[in-house]
Amino acid sequence: MKLPAFYPILDTGAVLARGLDPVRAAQDILDGGARILQFRHKAFLSRQAYGWLEAIAGLTREAGVPLVVNDRADLAKLFGAALHVGQDDLPPAAARTVLGALPLGFSTHNEAQLRASEDEPIDYVALGPIFGTATKENPDATVGLDELRRLRPLTRRSLAAIGGITRARSEEHTSELQSRGLIS
């Protein structure tokens, strides 16, 4: 799976903490030109949260943009979306049995995890957090750009650099990362 240069993650907890509507936030992200969107909902999946996902799936479908569901293989399958799992979630091999051929991504946080991901039945890998992030209760150690540069050649898969990437940081570093072939 080839990933676009910008991989936005709509974290419902972060959106709600700012008093925003998750569906409106998704529409704004898509209107801003996103070519992929991950729905990340770590709280209990209430009917309301299911409704947000259903509406966002409709928005991404209308925009022709892949939707990625975080952690929930059942919901990814239900909506025909990609799935993204982390180190402490459903193992990729188990997720693959639910997803079939739907795309599957996997988070890594260091060299050992990135190397181990090569043996997993996944389509892309994420590495991070690149910068400090406030959207996780117990974030992994920051990877940083130098480590991203060092680790990028260790995987043949598309790689999403995630965690703490803001507009200001991306504008500051995008041309450098593109020139080094770290992102497309």
Task: Describe this structure as you would to a colleague.
With 184 residues, the chain is an alpha/beta fold. It is 41% helix and 15% strand. It is built from eight helices and seven strands, in the order βααβαβαβαβαβαβα. The chain has a seven-stranded parallel sheet. β6, α7 and β7 (158-161) form a beta-alpha-beta unit. The longest helix is centred in the N-terminal third of the chain and has 17 residues, at 47-63. It is globular and about 45 Å long. The two termini are 13 Å apart. The mean pLDDT is 92.
Distinctive features:
7-stranded parallel beta sheet, alpha/beta, 184 residues, 41% helix, globular
Q: Percent of residues in beta strands? A: 15-25%
Please write the string of helix (H) and strand (E) elements: EHHEHEHEHEHEHEH
Question: Radius of gyration in whole Å, from Cα?
Answer: 16 Å
Count of runs of 4 or more consecutive helical residues? 8
Number of strands: 7
Layout of helices and strands:
Blueprint: E1 9-11, H1 12-17, H2 22-31, E2 37-40, H3 47-63, E3 67-70, H4 73-79, E4 82-85, H5 92-99, E5 104-108, H6 111-117, E6 124-127, H7 144-151, E7 158-161, H8 167-179
Parallel strand pairs: 1-2, 2-3, 3-4, 4-5, 5-6, 6-7
Helix pairs in contact: 2-3
